[in-house]
Every structure is written in C-alpha cells, then in structure tokens.
Amino acid sequence: xxxxxxxxxxxxxxxxxxxxxxxxxxxxxxxxxxxxxxxxxxxxxxxxxxxxxxxxxxxxxxxxxxxxxxxxxxxxxxxxxxxxxxxxxxxxxxxxxxxxxxxxxxxxxxxxxxxxxxxxxxxxxxxxxxxxxxxxxxxxxxxxxxxxxxxxxxxxxxxxxxxxxxxxxxxxxxxxxxxxxxxxxxxxxxxxxxxxxxxxxxxxxxxxxxxxxxxxxxxxxxxxxxxxxxxxxxxxxxxxxxxxxxxxxxxxxxxxxxxxxxxxxxxxxxxxxxxxxxxxxxxxxxxxxxxxxxxxxxxxxxxxxxxxxxxxxxxxxxxxxxxxxxxxxxxxxxxxxxxxxxxxxxxxxxxxxxxxxxxxxx
Length: 362
Known about the structure:
By secondary structure, the protein is α+β, with helices and mostly antiparallel strands. The chain has helices at residues 3-22, 24-36, 49-54, 63-80, 88-107, 134-148, 155-192, 245-248, 255-264, 322-330, 338-341; strands spanning 199-204, 211-217, 221-228, 237-242, 268-273, 276-281, 293-300, 303-311. The protein has eleven helices and eight strands.
C-alpha cells in the first residue's frame, strides 16, 4: 500500500509492542521508519521495465527474510534504547511484526507481494483493497499522531492503539468477505447475459470497498463488470473487449511475455498500437489506459517480431468523465463509462499474424 499507510501501520504496531518500554513517541518513530524499510527495493536496478514491474515487492517483502532480519535489526534497537535491554525477545518480535504486517497489507492489494519467497516464489495478491484506502489508513494515522504527542505511556493510549489495530484488521477481513460476495454476484450477472467466463476476479475500486471492478476472462475476450454494493435492481454494467491472442502467439516464447503472463496470472490483453505489440495487465487501472502497459513486439513487413521491452505511456489513465461516473457508481446509481463504452479494437482487420525474425528475447 502507499507509504503513509505503511508508516502509520508500522508506527502503530511498534507503539503497541514497545510504547510502554521506551515511550510512545520513540516507539512510533522507530516503527514508522522500519515500516517503510521493505519498500527500499524500489532503488534496486533492474535490466528492463518489465523486471522492475514484476520483481518489485520481492525478497524484501518475504516473511522468511523478515524472520532473519528481525534479530539483527532488533539487536540494534536493544543497544540503542536502554528501556529495551531487558526485553530482547519482545524487541525482536516487534521488529518482525512491523516488517511482516507491511508485507501482509501489500498482499491484500491486487499488485500483491512475494510474501512467502523462496518457499512459494509467486506473488500473493488478494485484490480486496486498493493501494490507497482512507477508511483503513485514517484510524491508524489518528492514533499515531496521538502517540507522537504523548511522552509517557498511558492506558488510554494503549486502548486507542489496540482499538485502531483491531478495527483496521477487521476492515481487511471484511474486504475479503465482500470480495467473495461480489464475485458470486458477478457470476450470476454474467450468466444472466449468457456469458460464461473461464475465470472471474473482483478487484476493489480506488479508495473504497463499496465499488468493485470484476473481470470475466475468456480466451479471446474479457468483460469488465462494475458492481456497487449499493446497486438497485437493473441491468448490470458490463463492457466486452478483445484480448487478441493472435498477437501474442509470436511472442509466447519470449522472456518478456512469459514474465507478464506469470505476474498477471493470465489477466492480460494484447493490442497493436501503431506498429508495436503492447501487453496490458488488466487488473490495474481502467480500460483502455491501464497502469502497466509494455511494448514487447513490433509489426513489420515480415510479421511480428520481439523487441526490447519498453513501457507504453501513450494513453491517459482516466478520462475526463471518469470521476462523475465513479461517484455515481459508488452511490449505486446507473451510469455509463464513456471511455470504455466507446473503446474499439486497435488491431486493423487483416493484420499479419506471421512471426518475423527474432531480434530480441525480452
């Protein structure tokens, strides 16, 4: 999740564990700084933009790495703060919890994290919360500000911190329950329209868990269904788009395509933008301006050939009308997303499907 949320979560966990030993202010600052530490992997250089995309939140977010790092970092804190010198095991445990909770809430987002690396190397991404969710972050922010204003530990502060951690944890649990409910409702909505997708995935819309985007995935197409928990009776809001698997056929053996297919768990589409073959992760962002789009192939007179991967940023992330649509759907009011309703296939009819000579492996 976002850096502010990671800071306040780490600060709240540290305050709960160590606030009575070194004071709430120090505990909050230490926990907040440690809570952002796993995200320093963004400074690790990668070979290409796809690697930086798929390998972010890697080993630095693994709970097994956290278990190894906790005694090392914890020992530094024991030597730094007198109040911790007789509480070595508590300090080590607090450090582990700060690191591990960072990875856990990242795993609740659709981007996910490789929380069980190297035992289970694939990223875990539930997708039941957006990367920024005020209803989760604000209670933690309030208690951390309270802790920073207090020099001494009190029972009232303890209750506030415990209450915030319990409430936010319950919110995460609720998001998973709602996600399963929405997926069930989406399957019924798809069936009512004669659609039988191979996979269905509900993803929380930005900043809330009332509105959801549900992807119905088929081999050659996908459907976006938008479902609000406040929706009344009426036709479901469904948009159908092509996936163009024929464009990916010549690139399926490249490392670039295989990484994107693996990381997206199959939720991707391929399109021709100019003469470039672009792969988009369907889970992040809205059609057509997805957050992560990569050109991995090129169409020339001989057909499609692989190229060195490059990030495609040629489309706006949101349309000018999207905010009005978002607010209406959040309230459960019927609305049409114009950017998606007017979307059309980018591939020209009769585009060559032959595979050209390989020039890059990606």
